[in-house]
Write a structure and sequence with these properties.
By secondary structure, the chain is an alpha+beta fold. 27% of the residues lie in helices and 25% in strands. It has helices spanning 3-13, 17-23, 66-69, 82-87, 104-110, 125-138, 150-156, 180-184, 188-208, 228-237, 296-306, 354-358, 374-381; strands at 30-34, 55-58, 73-76, 94-97, 117-121, 143-146, 161-167, 209-219, 241-244, 252-253, 259-262, 271-278, 312-316, 319-323, 335-338, 340-346, 349-352, 369-371, 386-387, 393-399, 402-409, 413-416. Strands 4, 5, 6, 7, 8, 9, 10, 11, 12 and 15 form a ten-stranded mixed sheet that branches. The protein is globular and about 70 Å long.
Length: 437
Protein backbone atom coordinates (compact mmCIF):
# COMPACT_ATOMS: atom_id res chain seq x y z
CA UNK A 1 0.00 0.00 0.00
CA UNK A 2 1.22 3.47 -0.84
CA UNK A 3 2.64 5.70 1.87
CA UNK A 4 0.29 8.59 1.08
CA UNK A 5 -2.73 6.31 1.62
CA UNK A 6 -1.33 4.90 4.87
CA UNK A 7 -0.49 8.37 6.22
CA UNK A 8 -4.03 9.48 5.58
CA UNK A 9 -5.51 6.39 7.28
CA UNK A 10 -3.26 7.02 10.31
CA UNK A 11 -4.61 10.55 10.51
CA UNK A 12 -8.22 9.26 10.26
CA UNK A 13 -7.94 6.42 12.75
CA UNK A 14 -5.26 7.63 15.19
CA UNK A 15 -5.20 5.09 18.07
CA UNK A 16 -7.02 2.49 15.99
CA UNK A 17 -4.51 2.64 13.15
CA UNK A 18 -2.50 -0.41 14.36
CA UNK A 19 -5.70 -2.49 14.46
CA UNK A 20 -6.50 -1.35 10.92
CA UNK A 21 -3.07 -2.44 9.66
CA UNK A 22 -3.38 -5.77 11.49
CA UNK A 23 -6.69 -6.42 9.70
CA UNK A 24 -4.76 -6.86 6.44
CA UNK A 25 -3.01 -9.87 7.96
CA UNK A 26 -6.35 -11.57 8.62
CA UNK A 27 -8.46 -13.53 6.10
CA UNK A 28 -10.86 -11.61 3.89
CA UNK A 29 -14.28 -11.27 5.50
CA UNK A 30 -16.95 -13.12 3.52
CA UNK A 31 -20.70 -13.52 3.91
CA UNK A 32 -23.70 -15.16 2.34
CA UNK A 33 -27.09 -13.48 2.26
CA UNK A 34 -30.07 -15.80 2.21
CA UNK A 35 -32.85 -15.22 -0.31
CA UNK A 36 -36.08 -15.06 1.74
CA UNK A 37 -38.08 -15.89 -1.40
CA UNK A 38 -36.19 -19.16 -1.94
CA UNK A 39 -36.09 -20.63 1.57
CA UNK A 40 -33.54 -23.39 2.21
CA UNK A 41 -32.29 -25.16 5.29
CA UNK A 42 -29.70 -22.81 6.71
CA UNK A 43 -26.09 -23.91 6.84
CA UNK A 44 -25.08 -24.91 10.39
CA UNK A 45 -22.82 -23.06 12.80
CA UNK A 46 -22.75 -19.69 11.03
CA UNK A 47 -22.50 -16.37 12.86
CA UNK A 48 -24.99 -13.70 11.81
CA UNK A 49 -23.61 -10.51 10.32
CA UNK A 50 -24.83 -7.23 11.88
CA UNK A 51 -25.45 -5.59 8.50
CA UNK A 52 -28.53 -7.52 7.35
CA UNK A 53 -30.78 -10.03 9.07
CA UNK A 54 -30.33 -12.58 6.25
CA UNK A 55 -26.52 -12.24 6.19
CA UNK A 56 -24.08 -14.67 7.82
CA UNK A 57 -20.28 -14.86 7.92
CA UNK A 58 -18.67 -17.72 6.02
CA UNK A 59 -15.06 -18.79 5.66
CA UNK A 60 -15.42 -21.15 2.70
CA UNK A 61 -15.94 -21.11 -1.04
CA UNK A 62 -19.63 -21.71 -1.78
CA UNK A 63 -20.00 -20.92 -5.47
CA UNK A 64 -20.81 -24.55 -6.35
CA UNK A 65 -23.06 -25.14 -3.35
CA UNK A 66 -26.49 -26.34 -4.46
CA UNK A 67 -28.10 -23.43 -2.65
CA UNK A 68 -25.99 -20.89 -4.52
CA UNK A 69 -26.66 -22.48 -7.91
CA UNK A 70 -30.40 -22.44 -7.13
CA UNK A 71 -30.37 -18.79 -6.03
CA UNK A 72 -31.09 -19.50 -2.36
CA UNK A 73 -28.25 -17.22 -1.28
CA UNK A 74 -25.92 -14.55 -2.63
CA UNK A 75 -22.23 -14.27 -1.76
CA UNK A 76 -20.85 -10.83 -0.89
CA UNK A 77 -18.58 -8.86 1.39
CA UNK A 78 -20.51 -8.50 4.70
CA UNK A 79 -20.77 -4.70 4.94
CA UNK A 80 -21.95 -4.50 1.30
CA UNK A 81 -25.42 -5.31 2.67
CA UNK A 82 -25.44 -2.19 4.86
CA UNK A 83 -26.61 0.32 2.23
CA UNK A 84 -29.85 -1.50 1.36
CA UNK A 85 -30.61 -2.09 5.03
CA UNK A 86 -30.37 1.68 5.57
CA UNK A 87 -32.43 2.37 2.43
CA UNK A 88 -35.27 0.50 4.21
CA UNK A 89 -37.10 -0.72 1.11
CA UNK A 90 -40.84 -1.30 1.56
CA UNK A 91 -42.84 -3.93 -0.32
CA UNK A 92 -44.60 -1.51 -2.72
CA UNK A 93 -41.67 0.84 -3.42
CA UNK A 94 -40.50 1.77 -6.90
CA UNK A 95 -36.71 1.59 -6.56
CA UNK A 96 -33.76 2.61 -8.72
CA UNK A 97 -30.34 0.99 -8.26
CA UNK A 98 -28.27 3.33 -10.37
CA UNK A 99 -24.81 1.66 -10.39
CA UNK A 100 -25.83 -1.92 -9.86
CA UNK A 101 -23.36 -4.56 -11.11
CA UNK A 102 -22.63 -7.23 -10.09
CA UNK A 103 -26.04 -7.32 -8.40
CA UNK A 104 -25.65 -7.87 -4.66
CA UNK A 105 -27.60 -4.77 -3.74
CA UNK A 106 -30.21 -5.20 -6.50
CA UNK A 107 -30.99 -8.75 -5.39
CA UNK A 108 -31.21 -7.54 -1.79
CA UNK A 109 -33.64 -4.79 -2.85
CA UNK A 110 -35.71 -7.28 -4.86
CA UNK A 111 -36.00 -9.59 -1.85
CA UNK A 112 -37.84 -6.78 -0.03
CA UNK A 113 -40.30 -5.99 -2.85
CA UNK A 114 -43.70 -7.61 -3.36
CA UNK A 115 -45.90 -5.44 -5.59
CA UNK A 116 -43.15 -2.85 -6.08
CA UNK A 117 -40.73 -2.53 -8.99
CA UNK A 118 -36.96 -2.35 -9.46
CA UNK A 119 -35.09 -0.45 -12.15
CA UNK A 120 -31.46 -1.55 -12.08
CA UNK A 121 -28.76 0.08 -14.20
CA UNK A 122 -25.19 -0.71 -15.14
CA UNK A 123 -23.44 1.46 -17.73
CA UNK A 124 -20.86 -1.21 -18.65
CA UNK A 125 -22.44 -3.71 -21.07
CA UNK A 126 -20.36 -6.72 -19.96
CA UNK A 127 -21.03 -6.04 -16.29
CA UNK A 128 -24.72 -5.59 -17.12
CA UNK A 129 -24.79 -9.19 -18.36
CA UNK A 130 -23.30 -10.37 -15.06
CA UNK A 131 -25.99 -8.36 -13.27
CA UNK A 132 -28.68 -10.02 -15.42
CA UNK A 133 -27.33 -13.49 -14.66
CA UNK A 134 -27.46 -12.80 -10.91
CA UNK A 135 -31.00 -11.40 -11.12
CA UNK A 136 -32.14 -14.51 -13.00
CA UNK A 137 -30.45 -16.92 -10.59
CA UNK A 138 -31.95 -15.07 -7.61
CA UNK A 139 -35.39 -15.38 -9.24
CA UNK A 140 -36.27 -11.68 -9.58
CA UNK A 141 -39.44 -11.10 -11.63
CA UNK A 142 -40.52 -7.45 -11.51
CA UNK A 143 -37.53 -5.52 -12.83
CA UNK A 144 -36.15 -3.45 -15.69
CA UNK A 145 -32.43 -3.72 -16.43
CA UNK A 146 -30.86 -0.84 -18.33
CA UNK A 147 -27.32 -0.14 -19.47
CA UNK A 148 -26.80 3.57 -20.00
CA UNK A 149 -25.53 6.90 -18.78
CA UNK A 150 -27.17 7.88 -15.49
CA UNK A 151 -28.14 11.35 -16.74
CA UNK A 152 -30.14 9.99 -19.67
CA UNK A 153 -31.81 7.36 -17.51
CA UNK A 154 -32.79 9.77 -14.74
CA UNK A 155 -34.01 12.33 -17.28
CA UNK A 156 -36.30 9.70 -18.80
CA UNK A 157 -37.90 8.84 -15.44
CA UNK A 158 -37.96 12.15 -13.56
CA UNK A 159 -39.58 12.14 -10.11
CA UNK A 160 -40.61 8.47 -10.46
CA UNK A 161 -38.78 6.68 -7.64
CA UNK A 162 -39.64 6.22 -3.97
CA UNK A 163 -36.12 5.00 -3.19
CA UNK A 164 -32.81 5.37 -5.03
CA UNK A 165 -29.51 3.68 -4.29
CA UNK A 166 -26.30 5.25 -5.58
CA UNK A 167 -23.59 2.74 -4.75
CA UNK A 168 -21.12 4.89 -6.58
CA UNK A 169 -18.01 3.84 -8.49
CA UNK A 170 -15.12 4.73 -6.20
CA UNK A 171 -11.41 4.31 -5.59
CA UNK A 172 -12.16 1.01 -3.79
CA UNK A 173 -9.93 1.48 -0.77
CA UNK A 174 -12.08 -1.00 1.15
CA UNK A 175 -11.36 -3.63 -1.50
CA UNK A 176 -7.56 -3.54 -1.27
CA UNK A 177 -7.41 -6.82 0.62
CA UNK A 178 -9.56 -8.54 -2.02
CA UNK A 179 -8.13 -6.91 -5.15
CA UNK A 180 -4.43 -6.09 -5.44
CA UNK A 181 -5.27 -3.79 -8.36
CA UNK A 182 -7.15 -1.45 -6.01
CA UNK A 183 -3.94 -0.92 -4.05
CA UNK A 184 -1.69 -0.70 -7.09
CA UNK A 185 -3.77 1.88 -8.94
CA UNK A 186 -4.44 4.06 -5.87
CA UNK A 187 -3.56 7.71 -6.30
CA UNK A 188 -4.84 11.01 -5.04
CA UNK A 189 -5.65 11.89 -8.65
CA UNK A 190 -7.93 8.87 -8.90
CA UNK A 191 -9.64 9.76 -5.62
CA UNK A 192 -10.31 13.26 -6.96
CA UNK A 193 -11.55 11.88 -10.28
CA UNK A 194 -13.94 9.53 -8.50
CA UNK A 195 -15.29 12.34 -6.31
CA UNK A 196 -16.07 14.43 -9.38
CA UNK A 197 -17.92 11.54 -11.02
CA UNK A 198 -19.81 10.76 -7.81
CA UNK A 199 -21.16 14.31 -7.65
CA UNK A 200 -22.36 14.04 -11.25
CA UNK A 201 -24.16 10.77 -10.52
CA UNK A 202 -25.85 12.21 -7.41
CA UNK A 203 -26.99 15.26 -9.38
CA UNK A 204 -28.57 12.91 -11.92
CA UNK A 205 -30.18 10.74 -9.26
CA UNK A 206 -31.78 13.84 -7.74
CA UNK A 207 -33.86 14.28 -10.92
CA UNK A 208 -35.37 10.80 -10.65
CA UNK A 209 -36.29 10.95 -6.95
CA UNK A 210 -39.88 11.73 -5.94
CA UNK A 211 -40.80 14.37 -3.42
CA UNK A 212 -40.54 12.72 0.03
CA UNK A 213 -38.45 9.94 -1.50
CA UNK A 214 -35.20 8.65 0.00
CA UNK A 215 -31.77 8.35 -1.57
CA UNK A 216 -28.88 6.35 -0.14
CA UNK A 217 -25.34 7.15 -1.24
CA UNK A 218 -22.66 4.55 -0.53
CA UNK A 219 -19.07 3.69 -1.42
CA UNK A 220 -16.56 0.99 -0.50
CA UNK A 221 -13.77 3.50 0.07
CA UNK A 222 -12.35 5.44 3.03
CA UNK A 223 -11.44 8.79 1.43
CA UNK A 224 -13.30 11.77 2.88
CA UNK A 225 -13.12 13.37 -0.58
CA UNK A 226 -15.43 10.61 -1.88
CA UNK A 227 -17.59 10.35 1.21
CA UNK A 228 -18.28 13.21 3.65
CA UNK A 229 -17.09 15.88 1.22
CA UNK A 230 -19.40 14.56 -1.52
CA UNK A 231 -22.28 14.58 0.97
CA UNK A 232 -21.51 18.17 1.96
CA UNK A 233 -21.39 19.22 -1.70
CA UNK A 234 -24.75 17.53 -2.35
CA UNK A 235 -26.43 19.26 0.58
CA UNK A 236 -25.03 22.64 -0.42
CA UNK A 237 -26.13 22.36 -4.04
CA UNK A 238 -29.51 20.72 -3.40
CA UNK A 239 -30.84 22.43 -0.27
CA UNK A 240 -34.13 20.48 -0.32
CA UNK A 241 -32.17 17.29 0.36
CA UNK A 242 -32.13 16.49 4.07
CA UNK A 243 -29.51 14.22 5.62
CA UNK A 244 -31.19 11.53 7.73
CA UNK A 245 -29.76 9.46 10.57
CA UNK A 246 -29.07 5.88 9.47
CA UNK A 247 -30.90 4.42 12.49
CA UNK A 248 -28.91 1.19 12.63
CA UNK A 249 -26.79 -0.41 15.33
CA UNK A 250 -23.85 -1.49 13.14
CA UNK A 251 -20.83 0.52 12.01
CA UNK A 252 -19.73 3.82 13.55
CA UNK A 253 -20.50 7.52 13.00
CA UNK A 254 -18.79 9.04 9.98
CA UNK A 255 -16.79 12.25 10.10
CA UNK A 256 -19.98 14.18 9.32
CA UNK A 257 -23.06 13.96 11.54
CA UNK A 258 -25.66 11.37 10.43
CA UNK A 259 -23.28 9.54 8.09
CA UNK A 260 -22.04 6.01 8.75
CA UNK A 261 -18.72 4.27 8.25
CA UNK A 262 -17.59 0.65 8.47
CA UNK A 263 -13.94 -0.22 8.99
CA UNK A 264 -12.46 -3.74 9.20
CA UNK A 265 -12.57 -3.40 12.99
CA UNK A 266 -16.39 -3.17 12.68
CA UNK A 267 -16.89 -6.55 10.98
CA UNK A 268 -16.74 -5.50 7.33
CA UNK A 269 -13.97 -4.65 4.89
CA UNK A 270 -15.01 -1.00 4.43
CA UNK A 271 -18.12 0.99 3.59
CA UNK A 272 -19.59 4.47 3.81
CA UNK A 273 -23.33 5.24 3.79
CA UNK A 274 -25.40 8.43 3.84
CA UNK A 275 -29.18 8.70 3.57
CA UNK A 276 -31.14 11.69 2.24
CA UNK A 277 -34.80 12.71 2.00
CA UNK A 278 -36.08 14.97 -0.79
CA UNK A 279 -38.39 17.54 0.77
CA UNK A 280 -39.54 19.36 -2.37
CA UNK A 281 -40.34 18.56 -5.98
CA UNK A 282 -42.94 16.54 -7.86
CA UNK A 283 -44.31 13.02 -7.93
CA UNK A 284 -44.65 11.02 -11.14
CA UNK A 285 -45.19 7.40 -12.11
CA UNK A 286 -43.21 5.19 -14.44
CA UNK A 287 -44.90 5.15 -17.87
CA UNK A 288 -46.38 1.73 -18.58
CA UNK A 289 -47.33 -0.16 -21.73
CA UNK A 290 -50.38 -2.16 -22.69
CA UNK A 291 -49.83 -5.89 -22.62
CA UNK A 292 -49.22 -7.59 -25.96
CA UNK A 293 -51.23 -10.65 -26.92
CA UNK A 294 -49.39 -13.94 -27.25
CA UNK A 295 -50.32 -16.98 -29.36
CA UNK A 296 -52.77 -19.44 -27.87
CA UNK A 297 -50.16 -22.20 -27.64
CA UNK A 298 -48.10 -19.97 -25.33
CA UNK A 299 -51.03 -19.53 -22.96
CA UNK A 300 -51.57 -23.29 -23.09
CA UNK A 301 -47.94 -23.82 -22.06
CA UNK A 302 -48.34 -21.45 -19.10
CA UNK A 303 -51.46 -23.26 -17.91
CA UNK A 304 -49.74 -26.64 -18.18
CA UNK A 305 -46.63 -25.48 -16.32
CA UNK A 306 -48.08 -23.00 -13.81
CA UNK A 307 -51.82 -23.64 -13.70
CA UNK A 308 -52.46 -20.04 -14.79
CA UNK A 309 -51.41 -17.38 -17.28
CA UNK A 310 -49.07 -14.72 -15.79
CA UNK A 311 -50.65 -11.35 -15.12
CA UNK A 312 -48.68 -9.27 -17.65
CA UNK A 313 -47.30 -10.54 -20.95
CA UNK A 314 -45.14 -8.82 -23.54
CA UNK A 315 -43.93 -10.20 -26.85
CA UNK A 316 -40.90 -8.79 -28.68
CA UNK A 317 -40.20 -10.48 -32.00
CA UNK A 318 -40.63 -14.15 -31.04
CA UNK A 319 -39.62 -13.84 -27.40
CA UNK A 320 -42.19 -13.74 -24.60
CA UNK A 321 -41.64 -11.89 -21.32
CA UNK A 322 -43.80 -12.01 -18.19
CA UNK A 323 -44.19 -9.99 -15.01
CA UNK A 324 -46.59 -9.46 -12.17
CA UNK A 325 -46.10 -5.69 -12.72
CA UNK A 326 -47.15 -3.76 -15.84
CA UNK A 327 -44.36 -3.44 -18.41
CA UNK A 328 -42.62 -0.06 -18.37
CA UNK A 329 -42.28 2.10 -21.50
CA UNK A 330 -38.60 1.98 -22.42
CA UNK A 331 -38.52 3.97 -25.65
CA UNK A 332 -36.27 6.61 -24.03
CA UNK A 333 -33.84 4.17 -22.40
CA UNK A 334 -31.44 1.41 -23.41
CA UNK A 335 -33.00 -1.69 -21.88
CA UNK A 336 -31.31 -5.06 -21.62
CA UNK A 337 -34.17 -7.02 -20.09
CA UNK A 338 -37.55 -6.43 -18.52
CA UNK A 339 -39.27 -9.13 -16.53
CA UNK A 340 -38.80 -12.87 -16.88
CA UNK A 341 -37.77 -14.18 -20.28
CA UNK A 342 -40.34 -16.98 -20.45
CA UNK A 343 -39.19 -18.42 -23.75
CA UNK A 344 -39.38 -18.23 -27.52
CA UNK A 345 -42.02 -19.04 -30.11
CA UNK A 346 -40.69 -21.39 -32.79
CA UNK A 347 -43.24 -21.99 -35.53
CA UNK A 348 -46.26 -23.31 -33.66
CA UNK A 349 -44.54 -24.38 -30.46
CA UNK A 350 -43.11 -22.65 -27.43
CA UNK A 351 -39.62 -23.37 -26.11
CA UNK A 352 -39.15 -22.16 -22.52
CA UNK A 353 -36.08 -20.32 -21.19
CA UNK A 354 -33.94 -21.09 -18.13
CA UNK A 355 -35.08 -17.86 -16.42
CA UNK A 356 -38.72 -19.03 -16.50
CA UNK A 357 -37.93 -21.86 -14.10
CA UNK A 358 -35.78 -19.74 -11.78
CA UNK A 359 -38.56 -17.30 -10.81
CA UNK A 360 -38.72 -17.25 -7.00
CA UNK A 361 -42.45 -16.46 -7.07
CA UNK A 362 -43.29 -19.79 -8.72
CA UNK A 363 -41.37 -22.28 -6.57
CA UNK A 364 -44.61 -23.79 -5.22
CA UNK A 365 -46.56 -23.20 -8.45
CA UNK A 366 -44.87 -25.40 -11.04
CA UNK A 367 -47.19 -28.22 -12.04
CA UNK A 368 -44.42 -30.45 -13.39
CA UNK A 369 -41.44 -30.75 -11.03
CA UNK A 370 -38.80 -33.40 -10.59
CA UNK A 371 -36.71 -33.48 -7.45
CA UNK A 372 -33.29 -35.01 -8.09
CA UNK A 373 -30.47 -36.28 -5.91
CA UNK A 374 -27.27 -34.32 -5.37
CA UNK A 375 -25.43 -36.73 -7.69
CA UNK A 376 -28.05 -36.22 -10.40
CA UNK A 377 -27.89 -32.44 -9.98
CA UNK A 378 -24.12 -32.59 -10.35
CA UNK A 379 -24.41 -34.68 -13.53
CA UNK A 380 -26.99 -32.29 -14.92
CA UNK A 381 -24.89 -29.22 -14.13
CA UNK A 382 -22.12 -30.81 -16.21
CA UNK A 383 -24.41 -31.03 -19.24
CA UNK A 384 -25.33 -34.70 -18.95
CA UNK A 385 -28.72 -36.31 -19.43
CA UNK A 386 -30.43 -38.26 -16.63
CA UNK A 387 -32.46 -41.48 -17.02
CA UNK A 388 -36.11 -40.62 -16.46
CA UNK A 389 -39.40 -42.46 -17.02
CA UNK A 390 -41.76 -39.53 -16.41
CA UNK A 391 -44.33 -38.61 -19.04
CA UNK A 392 -43.04 -36.52 -21.91
CA UNK A 393 -42.69 -32.76 -21.51
CA UNK A 394 -40.83 -29.95 -19.77
CA UNK A 395 -40.05 -30.18 -16.05
CA UNK A 396 -38.65 -27.85 -13.40
CA UNK A 397 -35.62 -29.69 -12.05
CA UNK A 398 -35.29 -29.25 -8.29
CA UNK A 399 -32.92 -30.07 -5.49
CA UNK A 400 -34.68 -30.18 -2.12
CA UNK A 401 -37.76 -28.61 -3.76
CA UNK A 402 -35.94 -25.55 -5.16
CA UNK A 403 -35.62 -25.35 -8.98
CA UNK A 404 -32.13 -25.00 -10.42
CA UNK A 405 -33.11 -25.30 -14.09
CA UNK A 406 -35.27 -27.37 -16.39
CA UNK A 407 -35.21 -30.33 -18.72
CA UNK A 408 -37.32 -32.06 -21.34
CA UNK A 409 -38.27 -35.68 -20.81
CA UNK A 410 -38.79 -37.97 -23.80
CA UNK A 411 -40.12 -40.82 -21.64
CA UNK A 412 -36.70 -42.38 -21.11
CA UNK A 413 -34.20 -39.55 -20.57
CA UNK A 414 -34.31 -36.02 -19.17
CA UNK A 415 -32.62 -33.94 -21.86
CA UNK A 416 -30.33 -31.25 -20.56
CA UNK A 417 -31.50 -27.63 -20.91
CA UNK A 418 -28.98 -25.92 -18.61
CA UNK A 419 -27.43 -23.02 -20.62
CA UNK A 420 -23.86 -23.87 -21.58
CA UNK A 421 -22.52 -20.75 -19.86
CA UNK A 422 -23.91 -21.97 -16.51
CA UNK A 423 -22.54 -25.51 -16.66
CA UNK A 424 -19.73 -26.54 -14.33
CA UNK A 425 -16.17 -27.29 -15.39
CA UNK A 426 -15.17 -30.98 -15.46
CA UNK A 427 -13.27 -30.92 -12.13
CA UNK A 428 -15.90 -28.84 -10.29
CA UNK A 429 -18.77 -30.49 -8.45
CA UNK A 430 -22.02 -29.52 -6.74
CA UNK A 431 -22.05 -29.98 -2.98
CA UNK A 432 -24.64 -29.42 -0.27
CA UNK A 433 -22.63 -29.38 2.95
CA UNK A 434 -20.22 -26.82 4.32
CA UNK A 435 -16.86 -27.16 2.58
CA UNK A 436 -14.05 -25.28 4.39
CA UNK A 437 -11.24 -23.77 2.34
Amino acid sequence: MKEQFLARMKMYLQDEYPAFIQSYEKPLLRALRYNPKKPMTKLPNLVQSPFCEESYYVNETLGNHAGHISGCFYLQEPSAASAVTILDVQKSDVVLDLCAAPGGKSTQIASRLEDGFLVTNEIDKKRAQILLSNLERYGVENFLLTSMDTKKLCSAYKNCFDKILVDAPCSGEGMMKKHDAASQRWSQENVDFCAKRQKEILANAYMALKKDGYLVYSTCTYAKEENEEVVTWFLENYPDMQLCPPNVSFGRPGYLKDTLRVFPMDGGEGHFVAKFKKREGSVANLPVLKDKAVPGFVETFFKEQLGFVPKHLYMQKDQVYVMDHPFVDTKKVNDIRQGILAGECKKNRFEPAHAFYMNAAWIDTFQKKWDVSLEEMDAYMHGNTIPCTLEKGYYALCFQDIPFGFGKCDGQMMKNKIPKGLRLLPNSHVFAERKPI
